[in-house]
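Design job #97: recover the sequence.
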């Protein structure tokens, strides 16, 4: 034996994909695997354990310190390592490496009997293991290839006579022996005796078995079961397309039976500490493209799926088990390997509306190309208004601005009443400016009737209009809770679930408590608020209308006039302009010989149906607004 080895010391070597296979100088077998990329070598024969790194790959022809305690360099030597890898909790703590796992004592391994493939076998432990495996749908061939053993062993369980005591009992068990670098590092024993009290099963149905277990592991934490299946020196692929992760060893065995090679289970089921159990194998896991998570359907299983998803991130694919199956083992027992393969091969990323493929939208794209899509609707004023404001049912964010007392709320009341009257769409008002809800509803009746004075109308004449508003509008008061964006959307969601909501009016923004943190600036809070309202509106196809005042305007340069209101004069943040789908500005002119209201549409996100521009209006005594082409046209109208 030499202290150091180079590639030239192994002339008798064969190509094995990204590795060489050579004769081991320690045990003499052809089980020495050498990484072509990194120079790592290790013998996998019967726990020989001979390994290290070739001097060809070392600085000054001496092994790197990182490889003296194990075969993989620490994470710091791998800058491309994924961010989920465990980091030491203190400067003196270093991550584990595969070589840190201690080998099971020989006397323990002697107790575990390899499965006997002989047809003449009469050993009761062998027969118990065979019966259990057969009932799980696992062949003897697969179990032998996975190094499954059997023995009679102690398991810790509740005593059947006294539930307050724990006692040790001897059971026939199968032994899941786990290997790292070809060395047995832990063994888990699982009882395989049928339940004595179990209800007799129907013909062809598998028997029920006890679920007692124990294990031997000289290293904590245990390594993931079957982790050697992705050992870089044992796989030929540069990249492993898919690694399947399951909750228990039996599930891993089931998937091996179905023909899957790269499958591991977490060492402690749903209670596994993922950071600790995976940290030694970070570089091994980096070579995996996709992680297929095949979890159990009970609460602990679903919790483990969530934790694995958080740990591995975007690489995760998820399975959907058939109805009535708690785990993939149930799927094997009830439906066989064909359905198991369908479950695994059908693994998909979680559905998300944030990722849209062309194929997902194929039919809707074809509909658009044929002209079959939402062409918007008239809000009831006429063609001039339709030219600048012609909404669809896509939903989103509408900002209405204007100087104080410019008629924003008054115009908005007429606009929403026309939308209700002409399109039958449902409106929810959160009107801080209108504390008297009775008067507000009465004003909407005036708008529906087109009459300023309704005192002469009988109750019978007014009732149809009250009924119409009852079916098409609702008020939020926000006296019980603070008017934060979260609370507003919570109450709006309650309305949405009970009514066909299409418009949510927040008048004005001034009363909304948008700032969520003491260190948050006004700009940040407004951006967060608008993003939240816009996303909610688009998700539910609802237009959120927010009335926002402009900041203090300055005098225009060289003039005795105030600067003109635009998208960026809204108080607090430029995000009003950036995030809005529509921005409407209302200006009221009330001078001798000049009396009209001007609507300036400052922003239109989708300009296929309408565009920015200006419309002039005159106001009737009842509160209705009539559109006009120009300021001069307003003067010729007499109401």
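Job complete. Output follows.
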């Amino acid at each position: 034996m030499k202290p150091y080895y180079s590639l030239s010391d192994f002339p008798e070597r064969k190509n094995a994909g990204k590795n060489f296979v050579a004769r081991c100088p320690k045990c003499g077998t052809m089980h020495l695997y050498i990484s072509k990329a990194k120079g790592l070598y290790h013998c996998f024969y019967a726990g020989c354990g001979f390994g290290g790194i070739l001097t060809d790959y070392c600085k000054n022809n001496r092994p790197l310190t990182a490889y003296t305690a194990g075969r993989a360099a620490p994470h710091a030597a791998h800058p491309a390592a994924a961010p989920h890898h465990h980091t030491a909790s203190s400067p003196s703590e270093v991550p584990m490496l595969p070589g840190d796992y201690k080998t099971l004592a020989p006397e323990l391994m002697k107790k575990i009997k390899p499965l006997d493939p002989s047809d003449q076998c009469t050993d009761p432990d062998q027969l118990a293991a065979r019966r259990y495996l057969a009932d799980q749908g696992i062949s003897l061939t697969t179990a032998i290839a996975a190094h499954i053993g059997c023995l009679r062993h102690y398991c810790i369980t509740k005593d059947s006579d006294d539930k307050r005591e724990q006692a040790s009992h001897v059971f026939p068990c199968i032994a899941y022996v786990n290997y790292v670098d070809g060395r047995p590092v832990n063994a888990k024993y699982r009882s395989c005796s049928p339940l004595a009290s179990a209800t007799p099963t129907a013909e062809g149905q598998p028997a029920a078995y006890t679920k007692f277990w124990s294990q031997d592991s000289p290293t904590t934490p245990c390594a993931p079961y079957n982790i050697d299946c992705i050992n870089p020196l044992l796989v030929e692929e540069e990249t492993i397309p898919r690694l399947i992760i399951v909750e228990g060893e039996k599930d891993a065995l089931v998937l091996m039976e179905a023909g899957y090679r790269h499958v591991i289970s977490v060492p402690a089921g749903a209670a596994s500490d993922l950071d600790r159990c995976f940290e030694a194998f970070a570089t091994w896991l980096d070579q995996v493209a996709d992680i297929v998570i095949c979890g159990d359907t009970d609460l602990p299983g679903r919790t483990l799926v969530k934790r694995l998803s958080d740990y591995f991130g975007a690489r995760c694919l998820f399975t959907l088990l058939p109805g009535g199956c708690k785990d993939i083992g149930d799927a094997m027992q009830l439906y066989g390997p064909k359905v198991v393969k369908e479950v695994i091969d059908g693994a998909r990323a979680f559905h998300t509306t944030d990722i849209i493929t062309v194929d997902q939208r194929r039919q809707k794209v074809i509909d658009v190309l044929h002209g079959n899509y939402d062409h918007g609707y008239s809000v009831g004023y006429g063609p001039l208004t339709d030219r600048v404001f012609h909404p669809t049912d896509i939903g989103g964010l509408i900002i209405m601005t204007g100087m104080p007392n410019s008629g924003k709320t008054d115009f908005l009341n007429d606009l929403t009443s026309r939308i209700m009257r002409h399109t039958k769409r449902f409106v929810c008002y959160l009107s801080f400016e209108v504390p008297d809800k009775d008067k507000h509803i009465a004003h909407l009746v005036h708008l529906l009737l087109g009459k300023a004075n309704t005192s002469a109308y009988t109750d019978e004449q007014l009732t149809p209009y009250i009924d119409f508003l009852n079916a098409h509008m609702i008020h939020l008061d926000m006296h019980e809770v603070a008017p934060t964006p979260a609370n507003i959307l919570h109450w709006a969601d309650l309305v949405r679930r009970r009514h066909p909501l299409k418009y949510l009016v927040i008048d004005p923004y001034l009363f909304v408590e948008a700032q969520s943190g003491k260190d948050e600036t006004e700009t940040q809070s407004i951006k967060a608020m608008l993003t939240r309202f816009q996303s909610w509106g688009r998700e539910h196809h609802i237009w959120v209308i927010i009335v926002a005042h402009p900041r203090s305007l300055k005098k225009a340069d060289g003039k005795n006039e105030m600067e003109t209101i635009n998208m960026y004069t809204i108080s607090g943040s430029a995000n009003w302009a950036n995030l809005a789908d529509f921005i409407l500005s209302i200006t009221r002119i009330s001078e001798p010989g000049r009396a009209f209201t001007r609507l300036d549409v400052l922003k239109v996100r989708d300009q296929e149906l309408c565009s920015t521009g200006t419309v002039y209006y005159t106001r009737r005594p009842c509160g209705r607004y009539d559109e006009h082409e120009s300021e001069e046209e307003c003067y010729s109208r007499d109401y």
